[in-house]
Write a structure and sequence with these properties.
The complex is a heterotrimer of chains A (327), B (501) and C (147). Chain A has 327 residues and is an alpha/beta fold. Chain A has helices spanning 2-23, 47-61, 80-87, 100-106, 141-150, 166-178, 193-201, 212-220, 267-282, 284-293, 302-322; strands at residues 36-40, 69-73, 93-98, 118-132, 156-159, 186-189, 207-211, 225-229, 254-261, 296-300. Chain A folds into 2 domains: 34-126 and 255-322, D-Maltodextrin-Binding Protein, domain 2 (3-Layer(aba) Sandwich), CATH 3.40.190.150; 127-229, Periplasmic binding protein-like II (D-Maltodextrin-Binding Protein, domain 2, 3-Layer(aba) Sandwich). Helices cover 43% and strands 19% of the residues of chain A. In chain A, β1 (36-40), α2 and β2 form a beta-alpha-beta unit. With 501 residues, chain B is mainly alpha-helical. Chain B has one domain (5-500). Helix content of chain B is 75%, strand content 1%. Chain B is built from 22 helices and 2 strands. Chain B has helices spanning 5-16, 18-36, 42-53, 58-83, 93-103, 107-141, 145-160, 167-181, 207-224, 243-265, 271-285, 298-313, 315-321, 327-338, 347-350, 352-380, 382-385, 388-407, 411-428, 434-457, 460-464, 468-500; strands at 184-185, 192-193. In chain B, α4 (58-83) packs across α5, α6 runs parallel beside α12 (298-313) and α11 packs antiparallel against α12. Chain C has 147 residues and is mainly α. Chain C has helices at 2-22, 37-59, 76-97, 99-115, 120-141. In chain C, α4 runs antiparallel to α5. The chains are: A alpha/beta (327), B mainly alpha (501), C mainly alpha (147). The interface between B and C is large, with 51 and 62 residues. Chain C: It comes from Piscibacillus halophilus.
Chain lengths: 327, 501, 147
């Protein structure tokens, strides 16, 4: 019995020490005064979670932030659950975001907009490409748009993971610019970018729109043919693929990710994040992460990010109307 | 492509490097442990371990994550057999005969045969991988929406046909499962269906929460009924299988390794479908189908061989084309991309040593896992020694923790309780549970593929006749539904003839 | 008549589901009814099966219902109800006081109900040690975010 009592005491002692460890905070004058929490509004294993965990690791490894940092996963509702959670936190918490924070609201799936938060930065972007099977008759984006202009239902277009997302809207915008009746287009929606690639490789669809990173290896191996990208400049390693601009379509379509904090942050707090995040994006570890993921740096500080989000909201509003998804 | 012997040997050497053996050992062990806990399947296990792989050599990371994956296949069936609570979809089939074997005092033998079957299934699949990776990948691509739709339909009908004598209850369970699968955003149109404005429901009801609810929570509540009469079963029985048991299991293991492997290769099918189809196939071709569900050893061997083979098979689309073949390989893909590796169609040509290291490590890993799992039997069986009054509260708590790691939200706790009560009622009223779960797993894919295939082929009849594969699957579906009726008709005739004589 | 409750439940479920189905938002792209075909098929299928089940049970209506007898015997109802109450307390406390203490309370409570008050020391030890070990292995070793 003594043995049991001893171990009981031991456990209690350990528990108590463990708790007091996390509770203690030293000189409470300057922000941050507490542990930092990074909200990934998705399950572990995806792009949002990856961004959050990479930020945590680099902030810590490079001693940019001294406080402890935790990543919390709050998946559900295309970011909605995580952002709702963020709304009620203090300035020690920030969340990863993307254009979904704009489109969810425009599509009537959420009451939240970027105005309910404090945009802290835009970090990265991916570019969106259009691909076809290697033996396809189409050699460039314009040929596809030409056929769709004649008969908008003649091609099946694969997209993931939902209507109204960037991959979908980038194609809609290009088609709209060319004068295609975009409300007639026949989209097949797949669950993930991987499924879109599979469908195209197996000839189950005619055209696919997806991020460059998902198509690049396949393109280089000659398994599928990228015919247009939505970036400003040709992409490194893919110089043979023309941008929409080079093909005469005025379109630049970033698929960006950024971070935002809860509403009503003080200037001091915003300045703190501007400083730490601008240091973060300069680190080698961050650059390496971008290369590995085929992301491009798209850094904007809190002020620029706020303006950018405002512009983007107008842009998306117009696009969703064009696509016939909202009135 | 042919097997390049030199690359193969080089891969073997790298796989035999002590560090890599250590990773296989760690991964396999972690996978086994995590796989045993309700709710913690391979996908979750790999996902939570991603931060550990930061900074690792990509090959070692891949070896480690693969080991976790097939380790979880071994572990998943442990809890199915011992306490009737599968940790993942692919471990459900192991409850059908594994748990009855435990009740018959043959827990040790059930655990042994499941480990051996997993090993043999895994080895079949690895050989298949070495010889057939590329042609199979090409075959898998030909599976379009029509083929997937009919594959899912066939699996559902096969599983309902198991509930012989209570087909109506089986169909009701299936319909409820399909209903649950329609909750969430409709992929093709973005319309919210039956979500009642709850954001957590917009991505659908996670089938893993339902599995934990119906099986783990339901089982605990059901056992409350007899709690005070339950004695420590403490019947491990013999650990090693008898000659007769081996004779019964031998062919089912050999037959179902390749079946599981082929289904695993298809991106969009997976271990759950593979093991369920293997179980139903064995039962339908068995000479003594009445033994199934009452502790038939071949009913444990067949699905176990199959689901482990499927986990190996699901690496083929990943490594040959860069597209994940299952939820778990999708997570693995995300993790290796973070490390700067981009599996794609050129992986075989550009870094063959990595592919062959992985294949060889799987081979070594499967052997290590069998040893781990057979050694663990004596430890695991202590679970049966735990007094039920302590064991069931622990299972209940683990069920909640497992659920939390799936969605990080307590909303799922309510879903868990609701399905726990549903599980209890189903057990009391003798409703089969498997059709409900399987319908929920495949329901939304089935609907989406059905709709895509109707768009692609214009008419439903064209969908059924789209290819030799769809025709075969259509015929199999009809057969599996009518089989129970034909059997009872034949038996009736026989008994009438006997009466007449 | 208890016997007919289950089939009636399924019939009602299918009707409610069908009503909800026809009430779904129409799709703005392609066929406006596309989202509701599949649910409609399932709803009708369940309705038919419910009716068949109803008649199967109707034939047996004179037999007594034995299935639920176990639920009201001995301390089963106490166990089930107190477990459910503890689950709701746990759900309520989980994100408010954190994983570690809420799990200790939940597991401790369950053990006191199921295992009995006499074994109080065993109950306390198990709940404290188990909660601590799981908290440590998830939150510290595996980096899972727990409240």
């Amino acid at each position: 019995m003594n043995k049991y009592l001893f171990s009981l005491l031991l456990v209690i002692a350990v528990v108590l020490t463990a708790c007091s460890d996390t509770g203690g905070s030293d000189d409470a004058s300057e922000f941050p005064t507490d542990n930092i929490e990074i909200v990934a509004p998705a399950s572990p294993g995806g792009g949002w979670d990856g961004t959050a965990r990479a930020m945590q690791k680099i902030f810590d490894d490079e001693n940019i932030i001294e406080k402890n940092m935790n990543v919390v996963n709050k998946p559900g509702g295309g970011g909605e659950v995580g952002w709702q959670y963020l709304k009620d936190q203090d300035a020690h918490t920030f969340a990863i975001n993307s254009s979904l924070v704009i489109t969810n609201n425009l599509l009537g799936q959420s009451d939240l907009t970027y105005k309910d938060f404090t945009p802290l930065a835009i970090l990265t972007t991916e570019w969106i490409s259009v691909a076809v099977a290697p033996d396809s008759e189409f050699d460039n984006g314009i040929d596809i748009l030409e056929q769709l202009k004649e008969d908008p239902t003649s091609l099946k277009i694969a997209v993931a993971p939902s209507l109204g997302n960037n991959d979908h809207l980038a194609f809609v915008q290009a088609a709209k610019e060319y004068g295609v009746d975009v409300t007639q287009l026949e989209f097949m929606i797949y669950e993930s970018g991987g499924d879109v690639v599979t469908a195209l490789l197996g000839d189950h669809v005619d055209v696919a729109t997806m991020s460059v990173s998902e198509a690049k290896e396949q393109h280089l191996a000659g398994k599928l043919k990228m015919v247009a990208v939505g970036s400003n400049e040709p992409i490194e390693g893919l110089e043979d693929v023309q941008t929409w601009k080079e093909q005469g379509i005025d379109l630049e379509f970033p698929h960006w990710r950024g971070v935002m904090g809860p509403p009503d942050m003080s200037e001091e707090e915003i300045a703190y994040w501007d400083e730490t995040i601008s240091t973060l994006v300069e680190t080698e570890a961050w650059q390496e992460l971008l290369v590995n993921n085929e992301w491009e740096s798209y850094y904007m500080n809190s002020e620029e990010a706020t303006e950018f989000l405002e512009e983007q909201t107008e842009n998306y509003n117009q696009l969703l109307k064009d696509a016939g998804l909202i009135d | 492509m042919g097997v390049d012997i030199q690359n193969f040997i080089e891969g073997l050497m790298t796989a035999l490097h002590p560090m890599n053996i250590l990773w296989v050992l760690i991964g396999g062990f972690l996978g086994t442990v995590v796989g045993m806990l309700p709710g913690l399947g391979p996908a979750t296990a790999v996902a939570v371990l991603i931060p550990i792989t930061f900074g690792m050599d990509p090959t070692s990371a891949l070896v480690l994550m693969a080991a976790i994956y097939y380790g979880a296949m071994y572990g998943g069936s442990r809890s199915s057999i011992l306490i009737n609570t599968p940790g993942d979809g692919s471990a459900i089939a192991a409850t059908f005969d594994g748990y009855p074997m435990t009740r018959n005092g043959q827990a040790g033998q059930a655990l042994t045969i499941s480990a051996i079957a997993s090993l043999i299934g895994g080895i079949f699949a690895i050989i298949g991988f070495i010889l057939l990776a590329k042609p199979l990948a090409a075959f898998a691509l030909k599976f379009g929406p029509a083929e997937y739709f009919l594959l899912f339909l066939f699996t559902l009908s096969a599983i309902v046909s198991l509930s012989r004598g209570k087909m109506v209850k089986g169909f009701i369970a299936m319909a409820i499962g399909l209903m649950l699968s329609t909750v969430g955003i409709d992929l093709q149109t973005g319309v919210h269906r039956f979500t009642f404005d709850i954001p957590q429901l917009s991505e659908g009801i996670d089938f893993l929460v339902v599995i934990i609810g119906v099986y783990a929570v339901g089982e605990v509540l059901y056992n409350y009924l007899n709690l005070d009469r339950l004695k420590n079963k403490n019947k491990l029985g013999k650990k090693w299988i008898t000659k007769d048991q081996w004779k019964r299991s031998k062919w089912p293991i050999i037959r179902n390794g390749p079946i599981g492997f082929l289904i695993g290769v298809l991106p969009g099918a997976g271990g759950s479908i593979a093991s369920m189809l293997s179980y139903t196939t064995e039962r339908q071709i068995s000479k003594e189908p009445e033994r199934f569900g009452k502790g038939a050893i071949e009913g444990v061997a067949a699905p176990e061989s199959s689901n482990n083979a499927a986990s190996v098979g699901s690496f083929i689309p990943l490594l040959t084309m860069g597209v994940p073949g299952s939820g778990t390989t999708a997570v693995i893909l995300g993790a290796v991309i973070m490390l700067g590796l981009r599996p794609g169609p050129l992986l075989f040509e550009e870094s063959p040593e990595m592919v062959w290291t992985l294949v060889n490590s799987m081979f070594i890993g499967n052997i290590i896992l069998v040893i781990i799992n057979i050694l663990l039997i004596s430890v695991l069986v202590k679970i049966l020694n735990t007094p039920p009054r302590v064991l069931y509260p622990l299972i209940l708590v683990l069920a909640f923790i497992g659920t939390y790691t799936l969605s990080y939200s307590v909303i799922d706790f309510y879903i868990l309780v609701i399905f726990g009560i549903i599980g209890l009622l189903m057990k009391l009223l003798d409703f089969p549970i498997a059709p409900l779960i399987l319908a929920l797993i495949v329901g939304s894919d089935m609907e989406q593929n059905f709709r895509k295939s109707v768009v692609a082929h214009d008419h439903i009849m064209n969908v059924l006749l789209a290819s030799p594969v769809t025709i075969t699957l259509s015929i199999l579906t009809i057969l599996s539904i009518s089989y129970p009726f034909i059997m009872s008709w034949v038996q009736n005739r026989k008994s009438k003839q006997a009466d007449a004589a | 008549m208890v016997r007919l409750a289950m089939p009636l439940f399924f019939i009602i479920t299918s009707i409610v589901y069908l009503i909800l189905t026809f009430d779904l938002t129409k799709s703005r792209t392609g066929d406006p009814n596309a989202p509701l075909y599949f649910p409609a098929i399932i709803g009708i299928f369940l309705l038919i099966m419910g009716i068949i089940y109803f008649f199967q049970e109707w034939k047996k209506r004179s037999e007594a219902v034995e299935e639920f007898k176990g639920l009201i015997q001995g301390r089963t109802p106490v166990l089930i109800i107190s477990s459910l109450v503890l689950i709701f307390i746990y759900t309520f406390l989980f994100e408010r006081i954190g994983f570690l203490f809420s799990t200790m309370i939940f597991l401790g409570g369950l053990l006191f109900v199921v295992n009995g008050i006499q074994k109080w020391l065993q109950n306390i030890l198990i709940s404290v040690i188990f909660s601590f070990v799981t908290w440590y292995s998830f939150s510290e070793l595996l980096n899972v975010s727990l409240p």
